[in-house]
Amino acid sequence: MAKAWVLHEIGDIRFEDVDIPEPAENEVLVNVKAVGICGSDVPRVYETGAHRMPLVPGHEFSGVVVKTGAKVSADLEGMRVAVSPKIPCRKCEMCAKGETDLCLNYDYTGSRRDGAFGEYVCVPVDNLIELVDNISFEEGAMIEPLAVAANAVRTGCAGIDPSDNGVKIAVCGMGTIGLIVVMLLMDMGFSDIYVIGNKDSHRDKAIDIGILPEHYCDMRVEEPVAWLKEKTNGVSVYFECVGSNESIRYGLETGAPKSRQILVGNPRGDMSFSRNTYWEILRKQMSLIGIWNSSYRKALDVGSFGQDGCSVNAKGAGTAQIDDWHYVLSRLEAGGINPSKLITHRFPLNDLEKGLLIMRDKTEDYCKIMICNE
Ligand SMILES: [Zn+2]
Ligand SMILES: [Zn+2]
């Protein structure tokens, strides 16, 4: 037997004895060493439920392979791994084109099948990403949100030279994803970055990761549109990491001609704009680009990209591109980013619900809450 948090119905999550799952022929059993609580886990547990219940949530995780399925080499036992939670069908038209991240019929660890809020989880061998020794389990558990932010940054900054002085970048929302977006931008060499937050802890974290105090806008005291206009004279790339109508508007009203509006935040409600704001999109020929999840290719397919697949403009047209997961892995390995700075709470598995409740009830400031099983 093993322990796991099982979501039985909305609001009813219990720490229980469960059978250790048995890996199918193309799967491995992973002993979970670290799992982050994602912002999406809070509504999943307390508001909407999961696609299927009972279910063990948890999709941002790392661990050690402890057992292999019949068609998987036993050599993988003992491997330290992070795991891509999205399981493409490999049959639909998008998968056939190689665009498995846009699969029309995917499965998902931690929302559609059992995830990592437990001691063990079974995952397809194709979804494993090996962690080199200098990447900790905690960092491994952060590759999933890092990869989402990498998708945003690599898409938003494709073809833009970080040394070009005219490039002004703004990031609205200093939650985990917004802060990671900033980290990745800095790692790429961008320096003229302006950020918007609304809590003292947002300001502290932003400055801690290298934002200049005069580049931080506290929207409780400053009006972001006027502030951004004054500071930037037109934003080239705007990352919306909140999902609110207002914060999308700030980007549209401050965007430079031909600016890119990168929409990352999950929508909190319906979106609508005044006619004048809408005119800005037309008159300035702005691009609005949606970001969803991240690209992941199994290790076998990644080999052919070679060493230089990690360049800043890896998403440029016509060039072979490394996927977001392996891009993040390479930056962690190189020491270019330090996401552990964002971990504000560490709990053992049996205290996982404390973390969920802190996030639901906002009883304390938090950024990333990590469950550590070591
Ligand atoms: Zn997530
Ligand atoms: Zn598919």
From TrEMBL:
<dbReference type="GO" id="GO:0008270">
    <property type="term" value="F:zinc ion binding"/>
</dbReference>
<dbReference type="Pfam" id="PF08240">
    <property type="entry name" value="ADH_N"/>
</dbReference>
<dbReference type="InterPro" id="IPR002328">
    <property type="entry name" value="ADH_Zn_CS"/>
</dbReference>
<dbReference type="InterPro" id="IPR036291">
    <property type="entry name" value="NAD(P)-bd_dom_sf"/>
</dbReference>
<dbReference type="InterPro" id="IPR011032">
    <property type="entry name" value="GroES-like_sf"/>
</dbReference>
<feature type="domain" description="Alcohol dehydrogenase-like N-terminal">
    <location>
        <begin position="25"/>
        <end position="131"/>
    </location>
</feature>
<protein>
    <submittedName>
        <fullName>L-iditol 2-dehydrogenase</fullName>
    </submittedName>
</protein>
<comment type="similarity">
    <text>Belongs to the zinc-containing alcohol dehydrogenase family.</text>
</comment>
<feature type="domain" description="Alcohol dehydrogenase-like C-terminal">
    <location>
        <begin position="177"/>
        <end position="295"/>
    </location>
</feature>
<dbReference type="InterPro" id="IPR013149">
    <property type="entry name" value="ADH-like_C"/>
</dbReference>
<keyword id="KW-0479">Metal-binding</keyword>
<dbReference type="InterPro" id="IPR013154">
    <property type="entry name" value="ADH-like_N"/>
</dbReference>
<dbReference type="GO" id="GO:0016491">
    <property type="term" value="F:oxidoreductase activity"/>
</dbReference>
<dbReference type="Pfam" id="PF00107">
    <property type="entry name" value="ADH_zinc_N"/>
</dbReference>
<keyword id="KW-0862">Zinc</keyword>
<keyword id="KW-0560">Oxidoreductase</keyword>
